[in-house]
Structures are given as C-alpha cells and as structure tokens.
Specification:
About 30% of the residues lie in helices and about 20% in strands.
C-alpha cells in the first residue's frame, strides 16, 4: 500500500513529534501475572494479520502531506518501552508493542490511525493473547477498509450555521516544557458506583464524566474567571457510512462551553442539561461534515499564512479533552486478569479518558499543570460517594 494521507497528514504536521511515544496514543495493560513473551509474540502476529494497517509506515510526501507505505520488515515484540516509536529496534514501524514485567504496552503514531483504529488493534492483540480464536476487528478486506474520510464528497445544508463560542476570554494553562509520563495518572473505582451516580442524575456516562471533569477544573483553578471549553472527539465512521476504515475518522469534535461562574455555582442537574443541549446541536451530519470540509481547506491552503488562520479557527479554545471509551477495550472473558489500564496521549494540557474493565472503571489522564487537577477530580468523585484508588502509572499498583 502506497497512498497519500489526507486526514492523517493533519496529525503529522509536527514531524518532530510524529513518532514520539508520549505525544501519540499509548496504552498500557497491567495484568495479574508476568507477561508470557512467547504467547504475546504469537498474539502480535495474529493481530497484525487481522489489522495489517498497523504494519504500515508513515513517510514524508510533498509539502505537508504524508504517505502510507508498506513496511515489509517484521514488527518485533519489544522488551521495554522504546524512546521513539519508529526506532531501528522496531524496524522503523509507526506502531509497536512492548512488554515489561506484568505490563503490555501498545503505541502508535496518531497520523496512522485514530483512537478507534488503535483500540481495535489493541483489543485484537489481547483477544489472541488470552486465547480467543478471532480478534474483535473484522474490517480488513471490506470496501471501506482504507477509506480516508477527507476523500468523501461531503456537503452541508444551505442554512447550516457553524457553532460559535462567544466569550471575552477562554481558560488556558501553559503546557509543560516537556512531555512526561510523570504527569499522567490512573484512578480506579467501582463501576457500579459511577453508574449509580449516572442513574441518580438521569444522564449518560459521557455527560456525567464531562460534568465531573469540568467541575474539577473549576475547583483546581478557583481564581479563574474565563470561560472553560471541553473537547470531545467524534467518531464519524457510522455517520459517514465507513464503519470499517482504519484511517482517522475522529478529526471532528464537539465542544462544551461554560462560564467560570456557571461551573463554580451551577448544580449538577443544571449543568448536565446544558451539556445535553450543547451536544444535541453539534452531533449531526452538518456539523461534523463542516469540520472535515474546513480541515480539507487547511491541507490545500495556498500558503502557510492561510493555513495557520484556518487552523486557529478549527482548533478552538479547548482547556481539556474528556472522552468515555467505555467497555470495548478489554474482553469480558479475561477482564479478571486485567488489574489496571492506562490509556491516553499528551496532546492537551488536561486530558481524561474513562475505561470500564469488568466491575472496575478507570479514569486515566494527563495533568500538565501543577497536579491540582487530579486532586480536585478525586475530591469531586469522593463527594459524590465514589471511593477512588490512585494507581502508579509505572507499575499499576496502588499509590
């Protein structure tokens, strides 16, 4: 496969971090026993046969574009996390798998695929490691397997008006000078406790997670008077009719915005109604298509100045990213062998992902500030009758 990337090229514009382990989607699975390297090596071979896109390598093409190229060298199972994804030890691949003690690690360049494509591969890998005959992904060979969403003929209604966030000032924090796993966190709780909270509030897991994540920011930065914006990536595969594609179909985002006083003074029910209302006017074909059309303009801009003007409008004023990844990452048949999960990337100063494994729920994230955010998030959960254990990302054990 040699194919110019459109959607992927946007995420690979920063060539310096295109293969950084920290700046791209990563995953650590902590098991209740040491990793069997022979078993994992066999699982890797099976997973790559079912998700062969992970064997492709990203190469520079003309201008800002990248090309997806076959890499005929084998993808080895690495012992320990490498410094960069495409190192020589990894035979130059843009994705990789490693192990250390009881940890299985998976990494990928975001320009190769999005979180959905990444987690499909990781789930397939784990399925085979734990003895499943087939992995969860069945898309290889389908007509939309390598469809790039930005190649589609997308249109918006004549009367569509883009969403505009109106505020005099938006909250930001300065990102850390360097990316570090020391700034990541893992929180573990009983899933039944979180679901009980959702039921009491008559709201979805994603909306409640957005509420708690934004309230935590308000408490962590009590002197803030600016509006706060939370980003939620949208998987557009089903909306666009390309359910099996591995290419990045999560470029579009919904944004939830509240004034600082609304977050600090607002009641849970009021804020959840606001989240629901804001979501309903963004999660539709017009809104998502519009963003892809605008991102295409970025790719084909006539010069750097025009490109940057377009990017500023599309990137928005996001303070944090909050996404519920749900239950699909870990198979129920072997969930009892998984003691912790660490998933994410370090693309925004504040990030929170929710993952359910068996009877446990994990909030994994990145706090590039002074770590007051993590403390506030724990406090927010505790006050809503959810007991939280903090785990060490290096080991998966209780801090």
């Amino acid at each position: 496969m040699n194919k110019r990337l459109l959607s992927g090229s946007l995420l690979g514009m920063s060539r310096s971090t295109m293969h950084s382990v920290e700046a791209n989607p990563f995953l650590r699975i902590y098991l209740d026993a040491e990793v069997d390297s022979d078993r994992l090596s066999g699982a890797l071979s099976q997973a790559l046969s079912e998700c062969p896109y992970m064997k492709c390598t990203l190469k520079a093409a003309e201008g800002i574009f990248l090309e997806l190229a076959d890499n005929d060298r084998p993808m080895p199972l690495l012992k320990g996390q490498p410094e960069v994804i495409n190192c020589e030890e990894n035979n130059g691949h843009s994705a990789g798998v490693y192990y250390k003690d009881n940890i299985i690690g998976v990494m990928v360049s975001h320009a190769l695929t999005d979180g959905v494509g990444f987690f499909r591969f990781a789930r397939t890998l784990l399925d085979h490691y734990f003895g499943e005959d087939e992995g969860i992904y069945r898309g290889y060979g389908s007509k939309d397997y390598d469809t790039d969403p930005m190649e589609l003929e997308l249109k918006v209604s004549d009367d569509y008006m883009p969403i505009s966030l109106s505020a005099d000032k938006f909250f930001t924090i300065s990102p850390a000078e360097s990316l570090s796993f020391d700034d990541t966190f893992i929180l573990r709780m009983e899933y039944c406790d979180f679901k009980a909270l959702c039921k009491s509030l008559n709201s979805s897991t994603q909306n409640v997670l957005t509420l708690l994540g934004m309230k935590a920011l308000s408490e962590a930065y009590p002197d803030n008077e600016a509006a706060v914006v939370s980003r939620l990536p949208v998987n557009a595969r089903n909306m666009f009719g390309i359910p099996d594609t591995f290419q990045n179909a999560s470029l579009a985002n919904m944004r939830i915005c509240f004034r600082a006083d609304e977050l600090s003074d607002g009641k849970d029910e009021e804020l959840l109604n606001g989240i629901k209302d804001q979501t309903s006017i963004q999660n539709n074909m017009d809104s998502i298509s519009y963003q892809y059309i605008e991102w295409r303009k970025v790719l084909f801009a006539k010069d750097h100045g025009e490109r940057m003007r377009l990017i500023v409008d599309l990137m928005g004023q996001d303070a944090l990213l909050i996404s519920n990844l749900g239950r699909g990452l870990i198979g129920e048949g072997y969930s009892s062998h998984v003691t912790a999960v660490h998933a994410g990337a370090m693309m925004f100063p504040l990030m929170v992902y929710g993952i359910v494994v068996g009877e446990k729920m994990f909030l994994t994230g990145y706090d590039a500030g002074d770590r007051d955010y993590k403390k506030a998030l724990i406090s927010i959960l505790n006050r809503r009758d959810i007991a939280v254990e903090e785990l060490d990302p290096a080991t998966g054990k209780t801090v």
